[in-house]
Amino acid sequence: MVAVPNIKLSSGYDMPQVGLGLWKVENEIAPDVVYNAIKAGYRLFDGACDYGNEVECGQGVARAIKEGIVKREELFIVSKLWNTFHDAERVEPIVRKQLADWGVDYFDLYLIHFPIALEYVDPSVRYPPSWFYDGDKEIRLSKATIQQTWTALEALVPAGLARSIGVSNFQAQLLYDVLRYAKIRPATLQIEHHPYLVQQELLNLCKAEGIAVTAYSSFGPASFQEFDMEHATKLTPLMETDAIKSIAAKHGKATSQVLLRWATQRGLAIIPKSTRVDYLEANLAVTDFDLTADEIAQISSLNKGIRFNQPSNYFPTELLWIFG
């Protein structure tokens, strides 16, 4: 079994540097995917309300625990607060629902998924709620502020519902805003990060403030081609670029492993998604070789500043004004 390094969080807890992302893991296979990942050595699982598969992922965890493969305290389970639950009084109830879905008593890390507050949708009406109030095309914004939402997240810690809290898809200005009033500082920032979107200044800020960074979509456009985004379909897939292929051949590694090592060697945590056991194992084995400084610089030079996971990429033109 591969030994995975830990990252020490400002909360005092250790977070595995390599985990499994659960976005787009289909419900019918999610229990087996999580179970097989635990058997392969994964201990961090990155979920969210919006993924719609927390019940099934929890079933995989329960199976592994029941069989004695792992103990709950050896796992690091991450979930996220969806946009429709930003109002302070909605936070704890939805966290308790998500914990029940997972079948656990606490989250190791709980994040604000997006810095966008939408009007509340009761889980009995539709769950996950999606972006749209009516489930179709109507977006209704909530008046909840990030400060109100963050304060509600802070209350999860003494209540024993979350050991660490953090944010996702925040940029520098919002991070600075949270740091002004936070009584519990964000332990992590989760962002889209790959060689086409390096965001080095944001990484520098997080390092200076002691905020660990988790990278998602480490393979760039590969995760978004199904959404028919222009950049995702026209850009050369990162694993097919000459630079990545050349470096991979030199090290005797897969191109995917080079991309993941580029992130982990620079101190980031990663949560690549896969449903195949052989890929799960390969993605986990990305901290036992080193790229040269020149290779890291060569990969970083692919930066184009292109972001795929932003709300305006998913919505019709008439809705873009909401997100700028």
Automatic annotation (TrEMBL):
<comment type="similarity">
    <text>Belongs to the aldo/keto reductase family.</text>
</comment>
<feature type="domain" description="NADP-dependent oxidoreductase">
    <location>
        <begin position="19"/>
        <end position="303"/>
    </location>
</feature>
<protein>
    <submittedName>
        <fullName>NADP-dependent oxidoreductase domain-containing protein</fullName>
    </submittedName>
</protein>
<feature type="active site" description="Proton donor">
    <location>
        <position position="51"/>
    </location>
</feature>
<dbReference type="InterPro" id="IPR044487">
    <property type="entry name" value="AKR2D"/>
</dbReference>
<dbReference type="GO" id="GO:0042843">
    <property type="term" value="P:D-xylose catabolic process"/>
</dbReference>
<dbReference type="InterPro" id="IPR036812">
    <property type="entry name" value="NAD(P)_OxRdtase_dom_sf"/>
</dbReference>
<dbReference type="InterPro" id="IPR018170">
    <property type="entry name" value="Aldo/ket_reductase_CS"/>
</dbReference>
<dbReference type="InterPro" id="IPR023210">
    <property type="entry name" value="NADP_OxRdtase_dom"/>
</dbReference>
<feature type="site" description="Lowers pKa of active site Tyr">
    <location>
        <position position="80"/>
    </location>
</feature>
<keyword id="KW-0859">Xylose metabolism</keyword>
<keyword id="KW-0119">Carbohydrate metabolism</keyword>
<keyword id="KW-0560">Oxidoreductase</keyword>
<dbReference type="GO" id="GO:0032866">
    <property type="term" value="F:D-xylose reductase (NADPH) activity"/>
</dbReference>
<dbReference type="InterPro" id="IPR020471">
    <property type="entry name" value="AKR"/>
</dbReference>
<dbReference type="Pfam" id="PF00248">
    <property type="entry name" value="Aldo_ket_red"/>
</dbReference>
<feature type="binding site">
    <location>
        <position position="113"/>
    </location>
    <ligand>
        <name>substrate</name>
    </ligand>
</feature>
<keyword id="KW-0521">NADP</keyword>
<keyword id="KW-0520">NAD</keyword>
<comment type="pathway">
    <text>Carbohydrate metabolism; D-xylose degradation.</text>
</comment>
